[in-house]
Design a protein that fits this description.
By secondary structure, the protein is an alpha/beta fold. It has 9 helices and 7 strands; from the N terminus they run βαβαβαβαβααβαααβ. Helices cover 44% and strands 15% of the residues. It binds NADP nicotinamide-adenine-dinucleotide phosphate. The site of NADP nicotinamide-adenine-dinucleotide phosphate (NAP) has 30 residues, from helix 1, strand 2 and helix 7.
Length: 254
């Protein structure tokens, strides 16, 4: 396939962790990849070099996806660089946790930021993707994968109930958007990881969380980013052509 014929996939928060693993695997499977990141340009550009050296078509795009205007600009930049009408996939992966606190200790500023980064971003990116991919808007169809967390059903008491609630919102976004767009050439699904060994835990003040949790998990180990990426890329593929509105657990049985 010539580069110009490859479908374009936008992965938010792809400078490291699950997003980076998804970008890497998607490029191997023939996607042209738009790598979004917020702060770490060095990591994003290093991933761009790695994928490009393997023959992939790829570019990094800086944007804080919690900011609606930056989301609009991000999609416009992807269109401008790769060509309008090539977008066929979106992975709403960017997400944050915060320090462990009880609900009775939360500031509303903390909860607002959690929802801005984890939920509002997904709505804004989904809106832009649907406007480009839905046949209702003249698009050729496409796929959206949203990232939830096992925390959505566990609730994460004493840690981050705000994060858990933000991920529950993501699962409901998936169900509604999948039904809204199923007859418009779109599929929308959720991947729900358990405890995955990435840097997100350090940001929450628990850098050893994955190792510490391992003995308590059914498989006696945390998951890897590439194991989550495999599920995401499968949902993006035609092999999942009759799967929409679904939540796929990648939790090692948690
Ligand atoms: P991670 O290693 O902390 O990576 C987060 C990525 O998101 C980084 O690339 C970061 O970019 C980007 N990001 C953060 N805020 C952003 C913003 N406002 N705009 C754009 N990009 C932003 O996280 P991860 O563990 O791979 O998690 C990825 C997703 O999986 C998240 O939605 C997370 O909630 C979910 N998840 C993770 C786990 C787990 O155990 N790891 C479990 C369940 C669900 P910069 O570094 O450039 O800021």
């Amino acid at each position: 396939m010539t580069a110009a014929a490859r479908p374009v996939l936008l992965v938010t928060g792809a400078s490291r962790g699950i997003g980076a693993a998804t970008a890497r695997l998607a490029a191997q499977r023939g996607w042209t990849v738009a790598i979004n990141y917020a702060r770490d340009a060095t990591a994003a550009e290093s991933l761009v070099r790695e994928i490009a050296e393997s023959g992939g078509e790829v570019r990094a795009f800086q944007a804080d996806v919690a900011d609606d205007a930056q989301v609009v600009a991000l999609f416009a930049a992807v269109d401008a660089h790769f060509g309008a009408h090539r977008l066929r996939g979106l992975v709403n992966n960017a997400g944050i946790v915060d320090r462990a606190q009880r609900v009775d200790e939360f500031s509303i500023a903390r909860v607002r930021r959690m929802f801005e980064v984890n939920v509002f971003s997904a709505f804004a990116c989904a809106r832009e993707a649907v406007r480009r991919m839905s046949t209702r808007h003249g698009g050729a169809g496409g796929v959206i994968v949203n990232l939830s967390s096992a925390a959505a059903r566990i609730g994460a008491p004493g840690q981050y109930v705000d994060y858990a609630a933000s991920k529950a919102a993501i699962e409901t976004l998936t169900i509604g958007l999948a039904k809204e767009t199923a007859a418009e050439g779109l599929r929308v699904n959720t991947v729900c990881p358990g405890i995955i060994d990435t840097e997100i835990h350090a940001a929450g003040g628990q850098p050893d969380r994955a190792a510490q949790a391992a003995p308590t998990l059914p498989m006696q180990r945390a998951g890897r980013a590439d194991e989550v990426a495999a599920a995401i890329v499968w949902l993006l593929s035609d092999e999942a052509s009759y799967v929409t509105g679904a939540t796929l657990d990648v939790t090692g049985g948690r």
